[in-house]
Write a structure and sequence with these properties.
The protein has 13 helices and 13 strands. Helix 2 (71-77) crosses helix 3, helix 3 (79-90) crosses helix 4 (132-143) and helix 12 (348-362) packs parallel to helix 13 (402-411). By secondary structure, it is an alpha/beta fold. A hairpin with a 4-residue loop joins strand 12 (388-392) and strand 13. The longest helix has 19 residues, at 170-188.
Length: 454
């Protein structure tokens, strides 16, 4: 592909574009909104052999804290509206969302509400159908068979917590994960793709347990236990799929420890398939350029590390837009009291800027909304923080925010997802050399300075 140059006038919204191999843009510095911006495309910068770190995986939805609790009521009472939602978010040739992340519950409030525990006692058989997240993933797979499913924990059932507090709960933790995973497999026909064995939003990643857990997966040969309810004809297939479960670590929030740990620990590097952290667009920048604490996530994504391999890097929990975008036209939070339109902090345009900046500054190629679907009763702590509001199952009403259409600008023109083993799926590559963000902010971005993000 030859180098091409284009010059034109770009508004802030038009300049907010993720750089992909099939349509590469760059802006070297911040400019007022109406200044000319030079856009450089150089196909020689595309890393065709980078199959993990730089492939554009698109968007995901996190089901947690009761945010999906009313979805199954929609499915029962207004199935036409429910399946419309499934098609809008997960269907089509270029799906908006291709990953369902399930944060497992313990029947206790973890933020905006509670999710049910799949095992309430050590003797109870796991029941994944209690969780709307597992059911959502099953339904999404009917329109997008390639959709990924991941799980993690924040809190744990009381019977397990007691063992964990004594320092002897690793086996119990493994059992809770395994039996839930196999129950979802038996009921819905899919194997979970990723597991984070560590605690959600930890500030002190448990690298030893992550390694222990991965080894336990690989060496597990017990798939005939009657508790798993797997027919004999399914066991070999289930075992193979189970052994292929990948590891993501460590869902950190406010700290950036796992990247350096993966770089300095060869065993951990071999175990962890994806690294991710929450609510921050930035990489870590400590020490000299060669140190493990300087741009660790960039080094992992680009394979510019001592192992010469690339890893997936995720923004594996981030907010969606707050409030309804159509109401923003009446606010006065813009310059000199003007309306922000679709812009401003925690707006639809903020999501676009955040997606671009998290790639430009820390090479994250996957963004997971917490949540993309708000399907729980009004009056909880975060009343509207989503792309789609589904709070009225009795009427079937759904509200699709303008943020849906803003984010479709990233996914509907690109082939997103995960590469296959032969690197022939045609997933689009991002290009570090052609990426830049001049907008301010790290958790929430603010495009009011008129700077492009490309």
């Amino acid at each position: 592909m030859e180098t091409r140059r284009r010059r034109g006038w770009m508004s802030l919204a038009a300049a907010t574009t993720l750089v992909l191999a099939a349509g590469v843009m760059t802006a070297p510095a911040a400019h007022p909104a109406d200044d000319a911006v030079e856009v450089v495309v150089d196909g020689r910068d595309v890393r065709g052999g980078n199959v993990n770190g730089l492939t554009y995986k698109g968007l995901g939805v996190l089901s947690c804290n009761s945010t999906s609790n009313l979805l199954m009521d929609y499915k029962a009472e207004h199935p036409e509206r429910y399946w419309q939602l499934i098609r809008v978010l997960f269907g089509g040739k270029h799906p908006l969302i291709n990953h369902v992340k399930v944060e497992r519950g313990s029947d206790t409030n973890t933020s905006t509400g509670s999710d049910p525990a799949t095992m309430r006692t050590p003797d109870e058989h796991a029941d994944a159908s209690r969780s709307p997240g597992f059911q959502l993933a099953a339904d999404a797979k009917t329109v997008n068979p390639g959709l990924k499913v991941s799980i993690l924990r924040w809190v744990m059932p009381a019977w397990m917590q007691a063992e964990w507090d004594k320092g002897t709960g690793a086996d119990e933790m493994y059992t809770w994960y395994k039996e839930t995973i196999l129950d979802a497999y038996e009921k819905y026909g899919y194997m979970v793709d990723y597991v984070d064995p560590d605690t959600n939003e930890t500030r002190d990643p448990d690298e030893a347990f992550v390694k222990w857990y991965k080894n336990a997966i690989l060496t597990d040969k017990d798939f005939g236990n009657p508790r798993y309810n797997l027919p004999a004809a399914q066991r070999k297939k289930a075992e193979k799929a189970y052994h292929n479960i990948m590891i993501i670590a460590s869902d950190e929030n406010e700290t950036h420890h796992i990247g350096p740990s993966v770089l300095r620990d060869e065993e951990l590097f071999g175990v962890v398939d994806a690294v991710g952290y929450h609510y921050n667009t930035e990489d870590r920048r400590e020490g000299g350029p060669e140190s493990d604490t300087y741009l660790p996530h960039t080094k992992l994504a680009t394979d510019e590390n001592k192992y010469g391999e690339d890893k997936e890097v995720w923004y594996n929990e981030g907010a969606a837009s707050f409030g309804f975008t159509e109401y923003r036209v009446n606010n006065t939070e813009g310059p000199n009291g003007a309306s922000t339109g679709i812009g401003g902090v925690q707006s639809a345009l903020d999501l676009a800027n955040r997606s671009v900046k998290s790639y430009a500054n820390s090479k994250r190629t996957h963004y997971v909304f917490q949540p993309a679907i708000g399907s729980f009763y009004e009056g909880a702590q975060y009343s509207h923080k989503e792309l789609v509001s589904a709070r009225d199952p009795w009427s079937g009403h759904l509200h699709y925010d303008a943020a849906v259409y803003v984010m479709q600008h990233f996914t509907q023109f690109a082939k997103t997802g995960w590469e296959n083993d032969t690197n022939t799926a045609g997933i689009w590559r991002t290009v570090p050399e052609a990426s830049h963000s001049g907008v301010s902010g790290t958790v929430d971005t603010d495009g009011s300075n008129g700077a492009p993000a490309t």
